[in-house]
Amino acid sequence: MDIVCGFGYLPSTNEYKVVRIYYCSNEESFVGRVQVYTLGSCTGWRDKGEITYSLICYRPCPAVLANGALHWLDDEGKIVAFDLADEEFLLLPSPPCFLLHNEDDYPFQLQVLGGQLCVVHCKNKVSVDVWSLKKKKKKEKNGNYNIKGQKEYQFWSWINEFDIDSDLGARYPMPFSLTKHGEVLFYSHATLSRYDLKTATSKKLVDIKKYLPACFSFQAIPHSNSFVSLKALGEEDTKIIKSAS
User: Fold this and answer.
1) What is the span of the domain harbouring residue 23?
2) Residues in a beta bridge with 138
3) Does residue 127 sit in the same domain as residue 199?
4) Which residues pair with 71 in a beta bridge?
5) By the 8 A CB rule, do 105 and 139 touch?
6) Which segment of the chain is annotated as a signal peptide (predicted)?
7) 30 and 6 in one domain?
8) Is residue 202 domain-shared with residue 98, that is, in the same domain?
9) What's the total number of domains in the chain?
10) Using only C-alpha atoms, what is the Rg of the chain?
11) How is the beta sheet containing 191-196 ordered, strand by strand?
């Protein structure tokens, strides 16, 4: 059995939800069973039916939370979203870069940069371009611009935000965060670096191999200071694990 999971926060209801999708390995069809768990609800796992998209990829990536939904790339390169409010699946429009890749490779990854859902396209071993999903403005009869609801993705469009051509020779640079000065933090295998969009230059920040020689590669995740007590949310079966120090 293969399991795909996602965790997200819904500000409109102040709820934290866990989504899990499991696929039976002995079945030929890629049909997954969907379950949702709301922290503190005391209702346990709720069945939400089936999903016909296969989210089991040869390079699995965690679900990406943006715009009140969890997002995955399926094995055919489609962007699948699970709306945490309606608890339904949506298929997002594809960015133009999806039409440029070879079907034999898988050069895309979802990220959140600057609060926007982004697609990182690895054009080759040392360069990537980044596309972000942004809302369109629709002019009403009174002359005012109105932005439609979050889940009406026909009013959204993909914008090519920036390109990275690493001068460090970093292989497959993967952006994961933006600094307050507009620089891009990216990692490549066991190296963490910074890219200046204005000067198009890179600076190596940390070489993980100095601290973990056996580390072949790693994934960088931006830290958000958002500690939440499970007991405060209403979870009864919780344990506090003390540190070993």
Assistant:
1) 1-92
2) 146
3) yes
4) 64, 81
5) no
6) none
7) yes
8) yes
9) 2
10) 20
11) 174-178, 184-188, 191-196, 201-207
229 is a domain residue: no
Contacts of 163 (CB under 8 A, 6+ apart): 127, 128, 129, 130
Q: Cα-flanking dihedrals φ and ψ of residue 96, to 5°?
A: -55, -30
- The reply to whether 15 falls in a domain is yes
- Do 47 and 75 lie in one domain? The reply is yes
How far apart CA 203 and CA 168 sit, in angstroms, is: 8
Sheet holding 32-38, edge to edge: 2-10, 15-23, 32-38, 46-51
Q: Does residue 142 sit within a domain? A: no
pTM: predicted TM-score of the whole model, two decimal places: 0.83
Are residues 84 and 119 located together in one domain of the fold?
Answer: no
Q: What percent of the chain clears pLDDT 70, i.e. is strictly above it?
A: 80
Q: Which residues pair with 195 in a beta bridge?
A: 184, 202
Q: Would residue 143 count as lying in a domain?
A: no
Amino acid at position 127, single letter: S
pLDDT above 90 as % of the chain: 30
Which residues make Cβ contacts (< 8 Å) with residue 202, sequence separation at least 6? 166, 167, 168, 170, 193, 194, 195, 196
